[in-house]
């Protein structure tokens, strides 16, 4: 339904934006995130100050299925969406008419889940005549760091979560260059699969991490360095090696100490992640290293990266746990960058499950 | 009282604005294209044509299902978020009833249906009330069409049965094979839902609308994973 002349909605959005710029007030953004199994809404000022960050987690529901079931997640999002947004405003002490823009994750993620947040954000943007900003989920994870400390460029961001393992170079705000990504499983996925093989509950990350600290990394497992100059990752070989180790031991009637296997697996994952990050930081003269994504909660990874960065004299930022897992404050923080550039989405914004980080959000 | 009505629950996209006396405007397409991309533009265009802003709306009515899970969610998420933003009431209306409304005045059994795959249909049995409006007689359900046909046959007691909905085309042969001349099919222009009907039906429900947060889709069945999990618990 494309029309030539500017719609009333577009006129209202532009007028709201111009008056905000003229007034020069702080920019208050409502963030919405529904890309996976957390329904989240947050209010963030100037991309740096979190006034509220409400997360309605579905983790308990999906636990029984041993993983996130997209249809179940999407259903919960519809049930929770307006309540979550309302709570975010209440906790922030803001009325909807004090919100300058709405930023929403439009990919990547589960399409049915994304669509709920996108539909809600578009409806609110339309009803209030305020700018709509489409945010890439990974950009959100990276910008969680800006809620802790100001970003310094160039920087290297290591993004590790259930669905992602990416090494990103940023030379300025809003610009992302992917140096490397996983060629098969995401780190978080490998954690879940290994956890299952050790009869640990879903999600596996925290359980492996806990167990790893009780064990010794004495089981020989491979490190997937790939080509010498590559920043890509691969975890499926490592996962298979873990399964083979268990299988062979069982056939020989030997017992493997689960804690030792967990420690060895974690050591392999962490070593590759940390060394590639450090190498990238050196190559691009990074002023800062950022750790982002749910796996940033992993103690083994945090400790190893902290130690290595100290040894190398590199500045490392790790957000608090509450900002590492999926949340809307990070989406609002990333959306602020688009706001300052006037990069807004239109009402045809769609959920894009395989969204590319380097794609522009602006229409 | 101006009510915005939305239906994205199946392939048709329909939006309308109605007041107590008239349908002010309606946009309906049967393009089978992405509702997520097109719906808000359709609403925006309709309101612009009517020279009204969203703040002039006093209620929202939305097709709450059954239908495509994703389509229903797009409609319901939009409707409740817009209603919440504007602080106006919102109600869900059955997607099947919206189609059944097309049979105004028909005196036999009215059977709206949407294909639900694997031989199943989403359907219900409606009958004209004293005012000629479709009133639900046998509750909405998802059922194998073959089983449903024997149910409606028994209920109809020989009265004619009007099958409505674009998907009747897919099932026409099986319906005719079972019901013969008892089964009637409307011209295609009666088969798709119109948001105007939803707005009109919704208007009467808006007075008793619950809170915005309570509005949820009507899927008529639990998610597959949930069904399996429940079966395992009981088995
Ligand atoms: Zn994430």
List keywords for this structure.
heterodimer; A: 363 residues; alpha/beta; Nucleotidyltransferase, domain 5; 5-stranded mixed sheet; 12 helices; 10 strands; globular; B: 235 residues; 2 domains; 7 helices; binds zinc ion
Summarize the structure.
The complex is a heterodimer of chains A (363) and B (235). By secondary structure, chain A is α/β, with parallel strands linked by helices.
Outline the structure in words.
- The complex is a heterodimer of chains A (363) and B (235).
- By secondary structure, chain A is of the alpha/beta class.
- Chain A contains twelve helices and ten strands.
- Chain A has helices spanning 8-23, 59-63, 70-92, 111-128, 137-143, 187-197, 204-212, 236-251, 258-283, 299-312, 321-324, 328-341; strands spanning 28-33, 38-45, 49-57, 101-107, 132-136, 155-160, 165-170, 177-181, 288-292, 316-317.
- The model of chain A has no long low-confidence stretch (mean pLDDT 93).
- By secondary structure, chain B is of the alpha/beta class.
- Helix content of chain B is 36%, strand content 26%.
- Chain B contains seven helices and ten strands.
- In chain B, strands 3-2-1-4-5 form a five-stranded mixed beta sheet, sandwiched between helices. In chain B, strands 8-7-6-9-10 form a five-stranded mixed beta sheet.
- In chain B, a hairpin with a 4-residue loop joins strand 2 and strand 3.
- Chain B is globular, with a radius of gyration of 18 Å.
- The termini of chain B are far apart.
- The A-B interface holds A 1-3, 7-9, 64-65, 69, 71-72, 74-75, 77-79, 81-83, 85-86, 96, 111-112, 115-116, 118-124, 126-128, 346-348, 350-351 and B 27, 34, 36-38, 40-45, 47-48, 53-55, 69-70, 73-74, 76-82, 84-86, 212-213, 216-217, 219, 223-226, 229.
- Residues 137, 141, 161, 293-294, 326 of chain A line the site of zinc ion.
- Residues 137, 141, 161, 293-294, 326 of chain A line the site of zinc ion (ZN).
């Amino acid at each position: 339904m494309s029309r030539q002349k500017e719609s009333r909605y577009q006129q209202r959005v532009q007028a709201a934006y111009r008056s905000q710029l003229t007034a020069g007030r702080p920019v208050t953004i409502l963030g919405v995130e529904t890309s996976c199994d957390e329904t989240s809404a947050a209010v963030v000022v100037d991309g740096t100050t979190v006034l509220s960050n409400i997360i309605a987690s579905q983790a308990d529901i999906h636990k029984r299925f041993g993983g996130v079931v997209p249809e179940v997640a999407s259903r919960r999002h519809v049930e929770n969406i307006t309540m979550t947004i309302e709570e975010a405003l209440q906790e922030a002490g803001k009325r909807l008419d004090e919100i300058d823009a709405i930023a929403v994750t439009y990919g990547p993620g589960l399409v049915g889940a994304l669509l709920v947040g996108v539909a809600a954000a578009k409806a609110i943007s339309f009803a209030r005549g305020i700018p709509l900003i489409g945010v890439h989920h990974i950009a959100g994870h990276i910008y969680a760091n800006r809620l802790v400390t100001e970003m310094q460029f160039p920087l290297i961001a290591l993004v590790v979560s259930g669905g992602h393992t990416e090494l990103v170079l940023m030379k300025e705000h809003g610009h992302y260059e992917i140096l490397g990504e996983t060629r098969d499983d995401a780190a978080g996925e490998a954690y879940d699969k290994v956890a299952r093989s050790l009869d640990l509950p879903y999600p596996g990350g925290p359980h492996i991490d806990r167990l790893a600290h009780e064990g010794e990394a004495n089981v020989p497992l491979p490190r997937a360095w790939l080509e010498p100059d590559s920043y890509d990752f691969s975890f499926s070989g490592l996962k298979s090696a873990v399964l083979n180790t268990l299988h062979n031991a069982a056939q020989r009637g030997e017992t493997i100490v689960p804690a030792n296997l967990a420690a060895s697996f974690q050591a392999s994952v962490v070593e590759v992640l940390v060394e590639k990050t450090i190498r990238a930081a050196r190559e691009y003269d990074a002023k800062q290293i950022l750790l982002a994504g749910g796996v940033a909660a992993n103690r083994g990874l945090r400790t190893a990266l902290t130690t290595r960065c100290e040894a190398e004299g590199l500045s490392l930022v790790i957000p608090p746990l509450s900002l590492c897992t999926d949340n809307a404050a990070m989406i609002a923080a990333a959306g602020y960058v688009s706001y300052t550039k006037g990069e807004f989405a239109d009402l045809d914004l769609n959920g894009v499950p395989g969204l590319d980080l380097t794609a522009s959000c602006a229409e | 009282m101006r009510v915005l009505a939305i239906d994205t629950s199946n392939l048709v996209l329909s939006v309308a604005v109605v007041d107590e006396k008239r349908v002010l405007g309606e946009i309906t397409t049967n393009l089978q294209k992405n509702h997520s991309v097109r719906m808000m533009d359709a609403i925006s265009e309709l309101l612009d044509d009517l020279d009204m802003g969203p703040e002039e709306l006093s209620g929202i009515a939305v097709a709450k299902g059954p239908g495509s899970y994703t389509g229903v969610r797009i409609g319901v998420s939009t409707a409740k978020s817009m209603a919440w933003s504007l602080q106006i009431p919102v109600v869900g209306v059955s997607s099947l009833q919206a189609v059944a409304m097309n049979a105004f005045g028909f005196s036999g059994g009215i059977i709206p249906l949407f294909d639900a795959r694997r031989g199943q249909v989403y359907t219900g049995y409606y009958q004209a009330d004293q005012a000629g409006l479709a009133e639900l007689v046998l509750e909405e359900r998802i059922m194998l069409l073959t089983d449903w046909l024997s149910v409606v046959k028994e209920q109809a007691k020989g009265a004619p049965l009007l099958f409505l909905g674009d998907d009747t085309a897919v099932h026409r042969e099986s319906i005719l094979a079972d019901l013969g001349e008892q089964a009637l099919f409307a011209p295609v222009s009666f088969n798709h839902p119109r948001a105007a009907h939803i707005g009109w039906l919704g208007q009467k429900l808006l007075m008793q609308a619950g809170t915005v947060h309570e509005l949820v889709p009507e899927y008529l069945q639990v998610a597959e994973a949930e069904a399996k999990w429940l079966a395992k618990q009981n088995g």
